[in-house]
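One example given next:
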Amino acid sequence: MHRRRVVGAAALLVVLPFIVAAQTPPVDISFTVAMPRPHTHLLEVDVAIKRTANGPQEEQLVMPVWTPGSYMVREFARHVQDFVATDAANQALKWEKTNKNTWRIVTNGAREWHARYRVYANELSVRTSELNSSHAFWNNANILMYLDGFLKSPSTVRVLAPDVWKVATGLPAVLGQKNTFRAENFDVLYDSPFEVSNFKTLIFNVKGVAHRIVIDGEGNYDPERMRRDVQKIVETQVDLMGGEVPYRDYTFILHLRAEGGGGLEHLNSTALGYPRFGFHVERGDRATSASPNTAEALPREYRGFLSLVSHEFFHLWNVKRIRPDALGPFDYTQENYTKNLWVAEGITDYYADLVLRRAGLISENEFLSAAARSIQALQNTPGRLEQSVEESSFDSWIKFYRPDENSVNSQISYYDKGAILGLLLDLEIRKRSNGAKSLDDVMRYLYVEFFKKDRNYSPADFQKACELMAGSSLEEFFNRFVRGKEELDYKVFEAAGLRLETNAPPGANAVADRVFFGADVTQEQDRMMVRRVYAGSPAYEQGLNAGDQIVAVDNMRVTTASFNARLAEKKPGDLVNLTIFRFDDLSTLLIKLGARRDGTYRIVPLPNATPAQKKIYSEWLRSQQ
């Protein structure tokens, strides 16, 4: 148990933003980002290169093609326009574009020269940029070019914004220069997004270090509850990772909009998006005083927000400091392949909810119910038998962000299966070590042995760290479930006195063999369309395709609602006659419905758990409250 108090702005021990004195490196690289006409969505960038001696005859500016944390080549150069280059006297310099994201400037050895260009910014997501009449948000990898060969050089960014707007970023401010910030190298620069608007700010302290939540947009959030709950998440994670706070300050940038969301991690900040009305909490503050067996103490929407915060904050250790082999320093011109995204993202996702439990923000039942739902979703994904989590990690660049109607049949998410593997691996280590060690110890070990020694870890390193804590080989586990595609073994729940139950218990609603069709349908105005068809299902095996329009069932016109109602009246083995449009051709399909046991997955206690099992359970899901 730890006592906590909310710290007001007047009690802050660290003042935001952190102040540093300007330095003069051998090559001075500075950016000015202006927005004189926000409604045009055009950010105006000036890159200034200054030397104390003559430079080379030609130099190159390069725009990144991706941004760390979002593993897909996004071609940010496509938004660049109006590029010009000049010397210190504002005389034009010759330049040419040599490939999709590189500009070569003939500088003739000039000690000082500039490049100016505009970037169209009209896409709000945590990985892109947006400028409009109400705010500006950008990731620096979207808009700032780097001088080829100087990724390790420091730089400054000056922001010219409307007077009523404030600037928030994780970068430290330069002393005596308004809205000017310094990055020690381009990896840090590209890891520090900017929010520029008339945002609201919530502030709290953890171990004397200042944290702020910068909120752009209106919503139904309770500021004091948000401050308190986010602080609990931070405190719990800091304790989990050994008590050290590895940053000078931390900034949560939160965008509230009608829909959409997500998060992207950074060294001492994160960008978050969440639906503006996703914060409703019932009166009585049930969540923070929930007993272990209180079901659904928090509305799912608000729990989702806290889980998002927890996930992105845990990344400051897992990914930003505990770095997979290829993820830092970065090559910004092409893919950076790794097989470890299931650790970087999946295990982070596992800890997101585990931390909420340990912080007392959700109950044991909520945690176990969420885990059961995740397992059920994985088991309903045919692609789980087609792609391993290492393959999913490696192919993220071409698959994860580009799903299609067949993705469910051909691949799995390294987030989803990785989180489940994290849970199973945690219990396996606890079981083999008789409760002495856990996945927590693995993460702390990686932090000390790899981050603090400036090393990245390989897949073999991660396995060895797990084996060190387990006290025995985990080769079979990794061969079958990480590198392999076998069905996961959920018997390890027994280590904590639990079991995974796939059918309803006696006395509940009868679970009989139910009809199995095997396709997802959606209503698009007056048309009922097939969105996806699951491999191995009756619909798949008997010829239904994604993109088909179902017009009628047994010669009667249907909508999605009436179609589902008709199926509910059927029995396994019944025949249904579908009238479909495939493109512009009308045809019929005769489909014999299948059967499946359609119970809900649940994680339930064993009837006679041993003291050792109860001890593992308690230490695993303990609340620090």
